[in-house]
Amino acid sequence: MEYFAVQVWTGHEQEFARRLSAVPGFGDALLVPKRALSIRRAGKIRREERPIFPGYVFLASETAEIGSSSRWLLRGSRHFVRFLPSTLEPRPVGERDRRLIAHFMSFGKAADTSRVTFGPDDRIVVLEGPLKGLEGMIVKVDRRKRRAKVRLDLCQDSFLIDLSFEVITEPGKA
């Protein structure tokens, strides 16, 4: 499976994918990997789903190229910005990026909360969830908000995202 990165207006990823999923041939081909966050506002905690890669939608394809009619349909859609790395010659994302996308898509519709514990020297140990396998990319841990800031590299661009976690205490420890 090949993935093409389509840059869209930030905040309009789901709308872009939803509108094009009704077009024959696109169906489930447009992917918007999401993460679940617990947001506290006015003392109430709500669960929100936000895109993992803000401003990006991924087009899944069996072949290593996009047909010209599909390319023009996407380019003419509202909120389209460009194909990566070039709108004139869209290419599938590299192997490292494909593994990263597949990692988040393996959690289904929205990457849920990771389960972690803290080991010696207050180092985070991920037991399960979207943070599993990304331990080396964690830049900062906020225990109060229960979030880990992770540096992701995608299409030669680096950015930080927050992923939520739940602390699991081991039996016999307080």
Distance between the termini: 46 Å
Mean pLDDT: 85
Residue stretches low in confidence (pLDDT < 50, at least 5 long) are: none
Q: Give the number of domains.
A: 1
SSE string, helices as H and strands as E: EHEEEEHEHEEEEEE
CATH superfamily: NusG, N-terminal domain
Count of β-strands: 12
The oligomerization state is single chain
Structural overview:
The protein has 174 residues and is α+β, with helices and mostly antiparallel strands. The protein has one domain (2-167): 2-Layer Sandwich (Alpha-Beta Plaits), CATH 3.30.70.940. It is 16% helix and 41% strand. It contains three helices and twelve strands, in the order βαββββαβαββββββ. It has helices at 13-21, 68-75, 95-105; strands spanning 2-8, 30-31, 34-41, 44-51, 56-61, 80-83, 110-111, 114-118, 124-128, 138-142, 147-154, 157-167. It has a five-stranded mixed sheet with strand order 9-8-12-11-10, covered by helices on one side. Strands 2-5-1-6 form a four-stranded antiparallel sheet, covered by helices on one side. Strands 4-3-7 form a three-stranded mixed sheet, with no helix packed on it. It is elongated, with a radius of gyration of 18 Å. The mean pLDDT is 85.
Helix/strand layout:
Blueprint: E1 2-8, H1 13-21, E2 30-31, E3 34-41, E4 44-51, E5 56-61, H2 68-75, E6 80-83, H3 95-105, E7 110-111, E8 114-118, E9 124-128, E10 138-142, E11 147-154, E12 157-167
Parallel strand pairs: 3-7, 8-12
Antiparallel strand pairs: 1-5, 1-6, 2-5, 3-4, 8-9, 10-11, 11-12
